[in-house]
Amino acid sequence: MRFGLRVAVPVLALLIAPFAVAAETVRWDDQVSSFNLDNGMEVVVIEDHRAPVVVHMLWYRAGAADEKPGVSGVAHFLEHLLFKATDTLESGEFSKTVAANGGSGNAFTSQDYTGYYQRVAADRLELMMQMEADRMVNLKITEADILTEREVIIEERNQRTENDPGALFGEQANAALYLNHPYGVPIIGWRHEMETLGLQDTLAYYEQFYAPNNTVLIVAGDVTPEEVKVLAQRHYGPITANPELPARARPQEPEHNAARRLVFEDARVAQPYVRRSYLAPERDSGDQKTAAALMLGAALLGDGQTSVMTQKLQFEEKSAVYATAFYRGTSLDNTQFTTVVVPVPGVSLREAEDNMDRVIQEFMDGPIDLAHLDRIKRNMRAQEIYAKDNVQGLANKFGRALTAGLTVKDILEWPDVVESVTEADIKAALSKVLEDSLSVTGWLTSDAETVK
Amino acid sequence: MRFGLRVAVPVLALLIAPFAVAAETVRWDDQVSSFNLDNGMEVVVIEDHRAPVVVHMLWYRAGAADEKPGVSGVAHFLEHLLFKATDTLESGEFSKTVAANGGSGNAFTSQDYTGYYQRVAADRLELMMQMEADRMVNLKITEADILTEREVIIEERNQRTENDPGALFGEQANAALYLNHPYGVPIIGWRHEMETLGLQDTLAYYEQFYAPNNTVLIVAGDVTPEEVKVLAQRHYGPITANPELPARARPQEPEHNAARRLVFEDARVAQPYVRRSYLAPERDSGDQKTAAALMLGAALLGDGQTSVMTQKLQFEEKSAVYATAFYRGTSLDNTQFTTVVVPVPGVSLREAEDNMDRVIQEFMDGPIDLAHLDRIKRNMRAQEIYAKDNVQGLANKFGRALTAGLTVKDILEWPDVVESVTEADIKAALSKVLEDSLSVTGWLTSDAETVK
């Protein structure tokens, strides 16, 4: 392994000088501990010694929403290109090496993060770190890589989006919801911009964001914090921070003054539905109660068989084949609170929407079923406990939260915050969010005539 | 006058070396001629020797749509700040000097340009050039200027936008129309971003865009091209081009797949109305026919007392107090084709919209009244002829077109292009634009209950 452009400590110095000492390890509970490297890398260790396996995840605090305008999709494109050659690895060798060592791995891109992970036998952790640190700075992308991999991501867009009216509809609804913030741009990219993504666009993103002071390293499994610290110091420690890393300040939303609607008509739509999204606050570090209230509100309204929307629309009135509400609070900036109703054949989208509005209004006007709320809370507590058994799931949860501006403390406090939410908190949070002016209502249909 | 950071030719050199010869002057007709300076400044001279007056206009090919995300309003903010101090002028002295010389002047910002002009006695032209060239590179903005002038632009937003429901509605409709392009962001800026505009944001825009290779100089009135060339060489010629001027490539629109709607409710609305905008192509250099057809289509549909919408809705059916259609084709990127109906009291917005749709559909299904089309064309020809009498209006027309990617040739050919448009051209252009999926339909109302 060699070190690339941002490496300050020459190899010789490594041999004769001791490493700088990293900040002290904080042990949060019997499973989670964390520390920082001097170069700004945040490291979280999640222990699970039941099997000799580790999950090694490197998360960059940079996703699609950090792209410059006009190059949408470049974050995800770069994620693909990270499997090409480095100074020491051939193109494709990264994945081959993981597989040859009995491991598996992959990568993912979202609005707020880009992540890479491998699941391997615990004694292969160092190799993973060595290779992951290598491609943080030593990537060698060629014009040929750009041409071939660009075809791959465009084909990915074809499969995931162009061939799926619901996905296209979601894109258009999203773009209508966000008036200013880049969350209105799809993660995979607008097709016409993907088609022109080039080497310079990709390298510009790589050089700006791929640096240790922009990462969270999560190692979960049969490993101790002490072991992780030694290895992380050895492999990630020599990479210097990018002093020009920009603050994560995306353009924020202006006041929303007008309810928006859209109709997406596509002959391929088999099941028409209504979907309404409201701009909603996200979990904020040290201030998570509103988000917890919205999450519980969504669960009461539309999560599962016992939820209000499902009970009323699906079982009592039989006007819907499916109804749901969801809220994803783990987000760096303003997120969405969404409700969906899929009407039974014969019920129009206008009726479906009126039904949805009525059921939500009744919910807001009436008392909350406290036994229902308690069941939801109990279920969430149980899920938190079961989640401890799945280190990869835990690692994901930590990565998503830490790249969305939250801290380990926030993550660990979350169950108590959820527990503390009252009926009044839920009503207050929902009534602020369920404002017409904050909403986009979309109709997905095979035939616009039926919606007029 | 001194020269600022981008000036390569020292003053001494000016005294001993002849100027580089500018490109040859092109004389387009008996009124319009043009040439370029070596530093990339495009110069257009419009002669009118009937009165000893000139209009001096400097247009930058940079407007609100060239701003970086997150600093909306900075183009317009800088326009205000250009009246502050330079190396040699005190803050406010620019305007005082224009007035003391019996002139008047102002400035304006749009999506595609920022412009500055003075109307003065012809013998004061050189002084205007000297001062305008000075502030292109020698501006000295202070933190105090930022604080005071920021209050001014925020107050301007209050007056123009916040206090006008129609303007707020237009902003939200615009943001919903553009899914990706910065035309969706208001020229004056989103309030929350205006409030944080700082010195660095402003200087960054100034240093990037205020350079001679990003300008069109238009001098109109009692002056010859030869005189303008001597003065422009003397005052603008020594300013060097900005070699890092970026290409004007804004993020373009993705495919629009879903008709959008919005309802803007504001108790201050005295007269509710429905407004629909369609994304529409702009005039392209060498290819202006579609735009000419759309302009004629808008005129047929909704320009004035004899237009189809007005005749039908206002006079025959008496369901509207006002109806109009308009299209502004002079734009660097995709523009809008807009129709508006203001219903009479008692007619709902839904009815008004249905009426609008019906009348437009009838227009599209039936033959075009060729006498009507001919009257419109004759009227436009007459306006072109009368326009020659108003040099300031002509100068504006040239400035808008030249900063929107058009050429002098395009501008001069425009009347013939309009003349050549046939009934079939209009129908073809309209039928491509009047697509639901390209549209945003907005209702402005004082009471959302009435629109449900």
Verbal overview:
The structure is a homodimer of 452-residue chains. Chain A is of the alpha+beta class. In chain A, the strands form two sheets. A seven-stranded mixed sheet of chain A has the order 1-2-3-7-4-6-5, sandwiched between helices. Chain A starts with 10 loop residues before the first helix and ends in a 7-residue tail after the last strand. At the A-B interface, helix 6, helix 7 and strand 8 of A face helix 6, helix 7 and strand 8 of B. Strand 8 of chain A pairs antiparallel with strand 8 of chain B.
A few lines on this structure:
Chain A has 452 residues and is of the alpha+beta class. Chain A contains 16 helices and 12 strands.
Strand coverage percent of chain A: 15-25%
Q: What gyration radius of chain A follows from the Cα positions, in whole Å?
A: 24 Å
Mean pLDDT score of chain A, rounded?
A: 93
Largest sheet of chain A: 7 strands, mixed
Feature tags:
12 strands, 16 helices, homodimer, alpha+beta, 5-stranded mixed beta sheet, 452 residues, globular, 18% strand, disordered N terminus, 7-stranded mixed beta sheet
Describe the SSE topology:
The structure is a homodimer.
Chain A (H helix, E strand, L loop, with lengths): L10 H6 L9 E2 L4 E5 L5 E6 L5 E8 L13 H8 L11 H8 L3 E6 L4 E8 L3 H13 L5 H20 L2 H13 L13 H4 L4 H11 L5 E7 L3 H11 L22 E8 L7 E8 L8 H14 L5 H9 L3 E8 L7 E9 L5 H17 L4 H18 L3 H12 L5 H13 L2 H11 L5 E7 L7
Parallel strand pairs in A: 3-7, 8-12
Antiparallel strand pairs in A: 1-2, 2-3, 4-6, 4-7, 5-6, 9-11, 9-12, 10-11
Helix pairs in contact in A: 2-5, 2-8, 10-15, 10-16, 11-12
